[in-house]
Amino acid sequence: MELRADSCGLEVALTIIGGKWKPLVLFHLSPGPRRFGELKRLVTGISEKVLIQQLRELADDGVITRRDYQTVPPKVDYEMTPFGLSLAQALKPLCAWGDENRVRIGELQKEAQSTAS
């Protein structure tokens, strides 16, 4: 997506973290480097194909780095760049909001499901 000069900051940020999976991938990378298999287990529900795509896009955007150790068997890990770490800091308030509103959101989702049935 091409940004206009008058794009708001949220629109700019969403060009990097837009979608369902990227914020979760970043959350799990924030403590430190992780291997692909670890991320696959931690990001519940993501397919291997989609995880590969999301990691590639985050690397292309300079948010993470992919480190290939050139070993047999192959070993690759992913780590946040300083740019990515600054983004992780920006996501922390959103995580806190989710934690604070977890019960209410669960109740709203149950209510919506019962209304739809």
From TrEMBL:
Q: Name one GO molecular function term.
A: DNA binding
What Pfam families does the entry give? HxlR
Keyword Transcription annotated? yes
Transcription regulation among the record's keywords?
Answer: yes
Query: Which Gene3D superfamilies is this protein grouped with?
Result: Winged helix-like DNA-binding domain superfamily/Winged helix DNA-binding domain
Q: Which residues form the HTH hxlR-type domain?
A: 8-106
Q: Which UniProt keywords apply?
A: DNA-binding, Transcription, Transcription regulation
Q: What is this protein called?
A: Transcriptional regulator
What organism, scientifically named, is this protein from? Burkholderia ubonensis
